[in-house]
Predict the 3D structure of the following.
Amino acid sequence: MAAEPKPEILAAFQAAKGFMPVAEGLALYDAAAEAAALGLPLLEVGTYCGRSTILIADAARAAGVTALTVDHHRGSEEQQPGWEYHDPTVVDPEVGRMDTLPTFRRTLHAAGLEDHVVALVGRSPQVAAVWGGPLGFVFIDGGHTDEHANGDYEGWAPHVAEGGLLVIHDVFPDPAHGGQAPYRVYLRALESGAFTEISVTDSLRVLRRTGSGT
Ligand code: SAH
Ligand code: MG
């Protein structure tokens, strides 16, 4: 049976600003809960305002592990002013650039999950380059260019422990439904022979490490 978040966690998730639909969020929660049983940290790339972080953090809390979430908080290409996913309420007027960190902090505080999350503020490849330990779960939901999606895979997938999960969001095999970079990274993970698909929920793919390498 799938692990499900408590009603108050689901309500906090639904109230949070962000890009994770409910059905995919429930699949994310279930994967995070399963992986948390390995006793290793769970890591997300692409915090934004903390919507998906709530679910990963609650799964981490229940298992007594830590959730890590990486973002430079300056937004992806498609979130910049003038682009489709821009939200003017997350611009820092003093700096004149996006800053989703304050909203993320409020989101986590409202959900009562601050104690279970370590926010890593920086560029994903730069953080990955100084990260040394194994992870039970890596969720890739950062930049959607090939450069960023490949960088996330190359930086973080090697840290997924045997039996751990690699979860990729925004996988669209049909180009009519969305950009192809996350799909190409998903194919790359499968072709590596290191990962086996265990579930598909809309654009969310859950893979398990069943072999070595990346
Ligand atoms: N998981 C979120 C949505 C993430 S949106 C939710 O559930 O709502 C993608 C995020 O990735 C943006 O906040 C952007 O700032 C971040 N991002 C994009 N490229 C990045 C990179 N190279 N390093 C760190 N963060 C990056
Ligand atoms: Mg996404």
